[in-house]
Amino acid sequence: MNLYLMRHGIASAKDDASMKRDGERPLTDKGTKRMRKAAKGVSRLGIPFDGVLTSPLLRARQTAEIIVRTLGIEDRLEEISGLAPESTVEHLLFGLTRYQDREHLLVVGHEPLLSSFAVYLLGGQKPINLALEFKKGCLCRIETELSAANPARLHWLLTPKQLRSLG
After folding, report:
1. Which of the chain's ends, N or C, has fewer CB atoms near its CB within 10 Å?
2. DSSP states of 66-89 as a string?
3. What is the rounded CA–CA span in Å between residue 1 and residue 101?
4. pTM here?
């Protein structure tokens, strides 16, 4: 499986008094504009996503919706709790096992879960000393069997700026 990990776009500040809960924080106007440009870059990559999964939080859902609208694959969008920020690597891994038959799966979530998950997949059963930084709006491609016994392969990690440049 080719697993594509994407961090949500720029969202309103954590200390915004108008937000009662973290999950209600939307993308900012700047975040929306940048994600639209990044989505055009994703489109230029020509990846035939056969599934798009998102965190239930608003900012991730909005990011995923921009991507699927741009690609014309709105019917492939699903929400899973394993992508919520309070989730664990193990919970996310378990949640993704239902999708092992997919060839190109995009997941949209949060830090530090996404980078922790990537490091877990890349290390297999062996702990590795690796730090990955997922900037808001970045996209990473990892080839994996979703198994700790078989280490994954990192193909690339594109910054948001690189994605926007492609668009």
Report:
1. C
2. HHHHHHT-GGGEEE-GGGSTT--H
3. 8
4. 0.93
